[in-house]
């Protein structure tokens, strides 16, 4: 019976992969479609964010139905690489990196530096996921989780207009996010904390309060709320790492 139910989390995982692929297709329309570039950037980012929800729900469904499997775990890694490695790298390339090329032998497109920089994101995501599959701590993540890194890039065009952000600042931000995935900085697992305090009543109360807060400030501001939450999570690991390093140096 458990094996028959594995199609439920696996379908959610494939939904994650599909949304990541669609995000790339949307981003590829930039410059070819009559739709403004900024709207296409935003739409691609929304698909990456939706994929992150599918990525969270597939694990929850597998644990709730007690139908986890090695196939599901491998499928999840492949989907995460596509959605949170390749898709964000491609989106960032279309937003900021496509014009960076070096002229060689009179050919301006012979050495596309921007493509190499964009490739850093899927490279780091692939290494991060492979390292996690080989060995991982049940209580924390080593390095920034790839779904979080992908969402960081996906929310970017929803919060900022691309033409208003200095390109070098955006590229530095992009590179740092990619490198955080392969760092040894420890990040807490939110699902571990949630399990300790989880009840349906508490969850409903929290979601209801969040919905009221968003409505009070404005539905259009939801990307800013999400970016604030994700940013807090990213910097919490960095701050903890710095504090731990200082303590070790004092000893």
Describe what this molecule looks like in 3D.
With about 250 residues, the protein is mainly alpha-helical. Helix 5 (about 120-135) runs parallel beside helix 7. The protein is about 75% helix and about 5% strand. The termini are far apart. The longest helix is centred in the C-terminal third of the chain and has 29 residues, at about 220-250. It has a two-stranded antiparallel sheet.
Question: Which spans of ≥5 residues are poorly predicted at pLDDT below 50?
Answer: none
Structural class: mainly alpha
Strand % is 5-15%
Q: How many separate helices?
A: 10
Q: Kindly report how far apart the N and C termini lie.
A: 55 Å
Mean pLDDT: 83
How many E-type strands? 4
Helix share, percent: over 70%
Radius of gyration computed on alpha carbons:
19 Å
What oligomeric arrangement do these chains adopt? single chain
Largest sheet: 2 strands, antiparallel
With strands numbered from the N-terminus, the spatial order across the biggest sheet is: 1-2
Characterize the overall form. Answer: globular
H/E topology pattern: HHHEEHHEHHEHHH
């Amino acid at each position: 019976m458990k094996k028959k139910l594995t199609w439920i989390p696996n379908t959610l995982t494939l939904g994650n992969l599909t949304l990541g692929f669609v995000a790339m297709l949307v981003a590829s329309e930039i410059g070819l479609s009559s739709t403004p570039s900024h709207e296409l950037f935003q739409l691609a980012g929304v698909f990456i964010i939706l994929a992150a929800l599918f990525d969270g729900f597939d694990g929850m469904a597998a644990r709730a139905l007690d139908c986890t499997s090695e196939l599901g775990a491998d499928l999840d890694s492949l989907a995460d690489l596509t959605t949170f490695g390749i898709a964000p790298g491609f989106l960032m390339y279309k937003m900021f990196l496509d014009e960076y090329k070096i002229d060689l032998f009179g050919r301006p497109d012979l050495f596309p530096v921007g493509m190499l920089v964009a490739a850093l994101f899927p490279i780091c995501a692939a290494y991060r996921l492979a390292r996690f599959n080989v060995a991982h701590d049940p209580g924390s993540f080593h390095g920034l989780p790839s779904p979080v890194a992908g969402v960081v890039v996906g929310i970017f065009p929803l919060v900022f207009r691309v033409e208003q952000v200095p390109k070098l600042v955006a590229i530095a931000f992009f590179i740092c996010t990619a490198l955080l995935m392969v760092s040894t900085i420890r990040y807490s697992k939110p699902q571990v904390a949630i399990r300790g305090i989880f009840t349906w009543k508490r969850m409903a109360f929290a979601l209801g309060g969040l919905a009221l807060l968003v409505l009070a400030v404005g539905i259009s501001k939801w990307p800013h709320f999400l970016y604030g939450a994700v940013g807090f999570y990213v910097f919490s690991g960095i701050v903890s790492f710095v504090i731990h390093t200082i303590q070790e140096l004092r000893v």
